[in-house]
Specification:
Blueprint (H helix, E strand, L loop, with lengths): L2 H9 L14 H11 L11 E6 L2 H5 L7 H9 L2 E7 L7 H4 L5 H6 L2 H25 L3 E5 L4 H8 L6 E9 L15 H4 L4
Antiparallel strand pairs: 1-2, 2-4, 3-4
Helix pairs in contact: 2-7
Length: 192
């Protein structure tokens, strides 16, 4: 991977603060998913599920669940993604992983299956962020919302659990904000 790709994914990328009115097509969302689904998960369990809110009406349905600071960002984005996980992900394991008995192992242990679904679903949400940037989309991940309200209002028929939100679209304007500070290697890492 060349420096241009690293710049696009990491060094020059910033959390979106404004979105252009340009819509994100369904074809782009399919391409986005087709990239992110290739990222590894433990045992290929693939528990993440994604709710793409693509209309103004659908995004407005989020308002009661949002922290006040996230309302304008969600309204401005052409798409808001609810990154979820399926607690019953193991029902798909016989198709996704050939290891005998794996489905039954998770089905018999609710704690293990919930932990696995949350951890790997979050990982797949990170893949969504990177795949979106690779496709030229801007992203703004958010955790300021009432997950239970989203689940009751938008996900009740699915059984999925909401994890975090991502405002998604094309960046407005070319000016980038200064990068916020990050921890140094020695502050965030240990080598044993």
């Amino acid at each position: 991977m060349g420096p241009e790709a690293l710049d696009r994914l990491f060094r020059e990328a910033r959390t979106a603060t404004a979105f252009a009115s340009r819509p994100v097509s369904r074809e782009t969302l399919v391409e986005l998913y087709d990239l992110l689904k290739l990222g590894p998960t433990s045992g290929n369990c693939s528990p993440a599920r994604f709710l793409f809110l693509t209309t103004e009406d659908a995004r407005r349905r989020l308002h009661p669940a949002l922290s006040p600071g996230n309302v304008a960002r969600c309204d401005a984005a052409p798409v808001v993604v609810v990154v979820c996980h399926d607690p019953l992900f193991f029902e798909h394991l016989p198709r996704l992983n050939t290891e005998a008995g794996l489905r039954d192992w998770f089905a018999a242990d609710v704690g293990l299956s919930e932990e696995t679904a949350f951890r790997n679903g979050t990982l797949q949400g990170g893949y969504l962020l990177m795949a979106a940037r690779a496709l030229g989309l801007a992203v703004a991940p958010m955790s300021g919302f009432d997950a239970f309200a989203v689940e009751d209002g938008l996900l009740a028929d699915t059984g999925w659990r909401a994890n975090f939100l991502v405002a998604l679209g094309y960046a407005e304007g070319a000016e980038k904000s200064a990068r916020a500070p990050r921890l140094a290697f020695d502050e965030a890492c240990l080598c044993l």
